[in-house]
Design brief:
Blueprint: E1 17-21, H1 25-36, E2 40-45, H2 61-64, E3 66-69, E4 72-76, H3 81-89, E5 93-97, E6 111-114, E7 132-136, E8 148-150, E9 161-162, E10 187-189, E11 194-198, E12 205-206, E13 211-215, E14 218-221, E15 226-231, E16 237-238, E17 244-249, H4 257-265, H5 269-288
Parallel strand pairs: 1-2, 1-6, 2-5, 4-5, 6-7, 7-8
Antiparallel strand pairs: 3-4, 8-9, 10-17, 11-13, 11-16, 12-15, 13-14, 15-17
């Protein structure tokens, strides 16, 4: 007889605990996949996340208290064992404000996944954080910074798990992935520093030249037409030129309403691929120790 309780809200099935550093779209895809697989998982984040794809990111729980992505709900929790465990018992994914992973001192993890996509070598000894440390993207060397690294660059090796000593993901190409034939133009970046004021909402369709966001007193206009797939939160302060403000998807111009909505509210193909790789790493730890 089938269990009447949906598997996506079970407390846990396996005796393994995972802490994910970050709660942006890629990190959320991982947390979502592990949670639905019955693995106990929590996320840590900064107090002011710079997330662009906010509608598919558990980091939005920091602003809203709770946030749901594809049927899985994250909850902002104080950094106490009692609050974290209470959220887990309710079938939720806890998110704590803790960029330095201090939570590990009171809630030790079997696996730590660094999903911040820092694109630079860590300055701390990540491998001391847990028996299994997994890192996403370039600059993490297996055996030096982590026990396993996951490829995040689009292409044939996307989602590949590196486990051999000395291996690492491909170097940062500084080229955004191609969507609908567009790469650099689809990513909206800050021309100056200052207060950020979005002028369009995620899910809006814009034309070339439309005003998208204001940084200080400078309006940033769309270099191309497309669907606004992501945009940073209002009230953030941009501290550097080139800061990522938003994301346009040209594919949205030729799609109907439901398809366009999914581009904004559903986990991407890239993120699902990476989430599967992370699940592989956790299962490998569970079966081999």
């Amino acid at each position: 007889m089938m269990n009447e309780k949906p598997y996506s809200t079970r407390r846990k099935t396996f005796d393994v605990r995972v802490v994910i550093r970050g709660a942006g779209d890629l990190a959320t895809a991982i947390g979502h996949r592990l949670h639905k697989a019955g693995i106990t998982v929590i996320h840590t984040e900064t107090a002011a996340p710079t997330t662009v794809r906010r509608l598919v990111s558990f980091s939005s729980a920091i602003q809203h208290g709770m946030f749901t992505v594809e049927g899985v709900t994250a909850k902002l929790c104080p950094m106490t064992v009692e609050d974290v465990e209470a959220a887990l018992d309710d079938g939720l994914v806890p998110v704590v404000i803790d960029p330095t992973l201090a939570i590990l001192a009171i809630w030790p993890a079997d696996v730590v996944i660094d999903a911040t996509i820092a694109k630079k070598a860590p300055t701390v000894d990540l491998m001391s954080y847990a028996p299994m440390v997994v890192a996403l993207g370039p600059c993490f060397v297996v055996g030096k910074h982590c026990h396993a690294a996951i490829e995040t660059c689009r292409g044939h090796d996307l989602g590949r798990v590196y486990t051999t000593h000395g291996e690492e993901a491909l170097e940062n190409t500084h080229t955004p992935g191609d969507l609908g034939g567009e790469s650099h133009r689809r990513v909206i970046r800050a021309p100056c520093i200052g207060l950020i004021t979005p002028l369009v909402s995620i899910g809006s369709t814009v034309r070339t030249g439309d005003a998208l966001v204001r940084v200080a007193d400078v309006e940033v206009r769309a270099p191309m037409g497309g669907l606004v797939r992501g945009m940073v939160s209002e009230g953030m302060v941009c501290s550097r030129v080139g800061f990522k403000l938003g994301d346009l998807d040209p594919r949205g111009l030729s799609m109907g309403g439901e398809e366009k909505r999914k581009l904004c509210t559903h986990i991407s193909d890239k993120a699902r691929n990476i989430a599967g790789a992370a699940l592989e790493c956790v299962v490998t730890y569970m079966t081999t120790g």
